[in-house]
Amino acid sequence: MVLILELQLKEIGIKNFLSYKDAKFKDLKNFNVLIGKNNSGKSNLFKLLEFLRERFNSTNFNKNYLYNEIDSKAEIDLRFLLSETLREKIFQKLYRGNYLQKAFIHNETDKGYLKRNEWNKEEIAIKWLLNNDIYKFLDVNLSFLPNLGRIIITRISIYNGKFDKSQTLFSANFVNNSFKTEYLDLGELLSRDKPLLYFFSDFNSTEIGFNQSPLNDIFINAKNFNKNPVLHILLESLSKNFFNALHHIPDKRKFNPDTERENIANTNLTPDGTNFVKFIHKKKSFNEDEWLNEFIERLRNYMPEIERLGDTIDANSDRAMLISKEKGLDMELKYENMGAGILNIALFIAYIMELEDESILCIEEPELFIFPGLQKLVRDEFLRSSSNNQIFITTHSPHFLSRDFNNSAIYQIKKIDNSTSVMKISDENLFEVFKELDLNLYDYLLYDGILFVEGQDDLNVFKIISDELFEPKFKIIQCYGKKKFIFYAEAEILHLLTKSDLKFLFLLDLDRGNENIWLKIKDDKLKEIIEEHTLKLFSYEIENIFLQPILIIDYLFTKNKIQNLVVDSRWLFENLERIFIKKGKNNLKYILKKFIDSNYDWFGKDDYDYIYNGTENISALDDIYKYWIERTEELLNKKDEFCEIKINEKAKLVENFNEIKETYVEHFNKKEYFKIISGKDVIKELKVLLTNKFKLSETISVENLSMHLLKFLNDYNYILPEKGKEPNIFNFKDEFLAYEQQKIPITEEQLIDFINYLEKLKKLIIGIQTKLNCEFQKNFERLNRMDFQQMFNFLIKRWNLNL
Length: 803
Fold this sequence. Notes:
- The chain is α/β, with parallel strands linked by helices.
- The protein contains 27 helices and 24 strands.
- It starts with 6 loop residues before the first strand and ends in a 5-residue tail after the last helix.
């Protein structure tokens, strides 16, 4: 991320204000996260910044802002990093005014300094000043003066890296009931033959009888500092890019369902969202279609189902009302039918779009009402916006933390002895992040270990498995898929877990991108850790595990939904097979996704859609491959002008496509659908069929099927024949397993498939037990080998078949 802020806040020091007795936020970045418990003092930083903005035009001071009213020393210290553009502007002013000429000539014989013929060239001279960190940081000190009952700017100074010195540009103090105000007189340098060190440190000042009332007095009267053009430029930037650039979105956000339409031309979006409806109405009334289209497009990144978010006019009240339109729905949803999450996300997007560059945006608890899976997307929106705005947030949510420590900073906020302390989080003290993410190592003493799973369904399923099978339980955390592995590696979390001797395990889907995921980790040691602590599902994704016909038949049977076991079972087998074939036949999406993950795993969903869109209009497979390769080439060239697919490499890509296709066809012919087809898609269609046919009161889901599976296994263990007692021997006839005239409505092959499936499931569960060193509950302490005859006997008893 390239810094383009003219002034970027780098440090904030606070003494004796609000809950901060003496605290400092060091090394601030473009995106800054304050995380901590309630009442720790996170939002007090925002209150102070807002307080400074309000004092800019006012002398009022509420003594409740003081940490201790008795202690008269109350200060706020601000340090800003100056952009290269701003520094260059200052140096041009100094160079063209000949302020530095004599100083440079004095140093021309010293090592590392410019010679006279070099100094005479402006471009070379300014580059030297930039490279030597001259005018690197701007420091502003604000103090509360009890005698005046207000806060004033008491010092403005600038730090010079080459000399490791700060130079006071302005100072003000209240002594003997009068102000003493001084500023640095650069005019003296025009007549003095002194070295640069003298120029870039404190020298003679000029005193003026200047009295600050509101803070902006110093900026309004900047003309008084006519002997220091540097101070002129810095005050202008400080006013524009700090005091007048502060914005605060509070945690108490309100959204009115409708609004009056008067005076809409002067409507600016309020940070708390109260006039959000009126603001959207203004955009539509003034035909700002480009803005509205971009707004909707950005909103769809979070909620693809949203077709439109806008307003309509209520004919009875002549008020604008907020409405949304979703794809596939003929009706429009009014405000009261919208989720709070969509309104909060919409407010953030709209507010950021309205921000002028160089703004400082403070947001309290952005996670409120937003689903965890979307919180990371909101965080990414903030990160993108922080390239030209500086953003601060307070949060309790781990999903807003970023491991990009070059562009983001994390601060742990605590209350100690009634005073707020601030600690910067880095790789060295990442242990503290675990505490704030609800990953407290002390808490883990109560658990067998940590199980990292990919998606929300994985989280729900393995929470059920953990609760029902294991004692004590392990902690389950969603890691959001294969592309987050590098996140855990870079954050040193894996090293921390290993050093702490905590048992942990990553459980991955058997999908196209997880085959050798650890090979994409550059650090060899981390590769070994990942490989050692990873288990793969035996199916494409968690949903496929529950698409077993016998399991679903048993589920329906226990719900008393089966009318005729033979007929209903045959119906289920046939329909499930039909859905698998329909979803799997010529599954081009699988082939393309596997190709992308094996060659360009850094591509995102938008990149995939770009390559795939248009495929449905091409019939021949070879033409489809050619089309994909052309689109891939276009995409790569858009991403990087130096990235091209050479002609001889295209043949390799076609060969790669064919290999993937052959593997896919092999799986399909063997009916290994669980390896190549998304279970989510199959369950979605199966839900509708089952609900319509069996009139289910509850929808089929991975959660209730996983719970039923555990009950099935528990019953199987309980009803098994006694040790040493031989099970009954049955004769097998026709297409169904049968004895005499009665039938059990599954074939021998289908029962064997089901037993093999249960064996795989047991192997997975035992793998979790082994890796996490956890114990089974008593009723699951032995998971017996699944015997064909025993399973047959068990189903006969379970389904009340009178054989």
